[in-house]
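Handout, tutorial session.
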Amino acid sequence: MTANLDDMVPNPRKQELLRALEKVRMHARQLEAALDPPHATFTGKAVWVGPQARAFADELTQRRARLRSLIQRIVSDLEAEFMAAPEHVRRSPAAH
């Protein structure tokens, strides 16, 4: 059964997803950069040297990469959900 165009309205779920995606993208940029200053400090100049310092810098680098990867996964999942949502849905019978 095909819906009459008069019965279709913009999908409120898609609009909610867009607002959420915009917020998540904004926070994602902040989170992605959260470990940049300490990472730059430890990898840019010799503030601490020795095997423990190298191990710390390696772990910091790995955690920074993991944080960025997880953030991108969240953004990608939300983008996929947004793209999969239909533009229009049937008008609710209660809306009449």
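The second record follows below. Compare its token runs with those of the first.
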Amino acid sequence: MSPHRPPVGDLFRRFRDRLAAENADRLAAESTDRADTPTDPAPSPPGAARPTARGSGRQGGRRGGRRGGGEELRVPEAEFTSYYGRPILKAPVWKWDIAAYLFTGGLAAGSSLLAAGGQVTGRPTLRRAGRVTALTAVTASAVFLIRDLGRPARFHHMLRVAKPTSPMSVGTWILTAYGPAAGVAAIAEGAGLLPRRGLLGLARRALPPVGHAAGLLAAATAPALATYTGVLLADTAVPSWHEAYPELPIVFAGSALASGAGVGLLAAPPAEAGPARRMAVAGAALELYGAHRVETRLGLLSEPYRRGRPGRLLRAGRWLTAAGVTGALLGRRSRTVGALSGAALLGASVATRFGIFYGGVASARDPRYTVVPQRERVNARRAGADLPAD
């Protein structure tokens, strides 16, 4: 240590005394400023320093302003709005055309089953109505799907692979197998318009048996066509669709049968509408059971199906289904009652499909339906593992 340098202790005491003096001067200056500041100060000119509020210093900010005289700061209640400014779950970009695709796919499947029933039981009116409606519905379904995809080539690209674990891939192959069969079966209904001689006469004789085979093939693939869309929706991350994975195929199967029965009741006279009435009963039972489960079993995730537009659509679907099947059973001898019942069943199928679609979209837009079930599952796992909850 140099003999001319003061000891370290003296240096530290001088520094402490100087710091204490500076703090005393600063506190005195702040007290003078507060005493001279009016209750309602005039606005400061631009660029001037704004006075510091009491209790807004570092200590008040850290300790909630208790010692500085400010209000106590508390963490606000959590609101499930976003994750760093972004939605917790991206809502589906699908629009009404996908809901219409769900309906037309089910209508095509139900109509093919109706046509097969008319073919097996010898009811040509049912067979013809079912085949023509099936071709029209599957064509509309392809239009809605391609409209959503944006380019027809995207549907073609899906056929380059077969992925059994992907509902989209499986659905593409189902449509590929069903569409040509339904088309050939419908074209065969026009065989009677061809001339009896020549090459067209040969086609006139060959089309009916080919159409029968194609109609049975379309009916064999119809159940998969009717239900794969339910599996497709349940395979997404949308909460109210994903949690309803056991019920959606049941709802869509019942809706397809009911819509096919509606076509038969509209087209066939009461004497030939027996298979359509039986389809109406089976479809109504499945649809009402599945829709009731969707609206009651899922707990919090059932709310989107009971509120707003989805709730109104599903309630309308239930009432139309009940009215349609009641009219089909009680109006067996009335063509007018049968037609009204068929229209009610078709309307019920539309309302049900759109209600399920919009219910899932609503659950994806509200973060509460994503966060709350996740916390419940985490707490359940903690309780099962005997761990403390959050």
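Points raised in discussion: The chain is about 70% helix and 0% strand.
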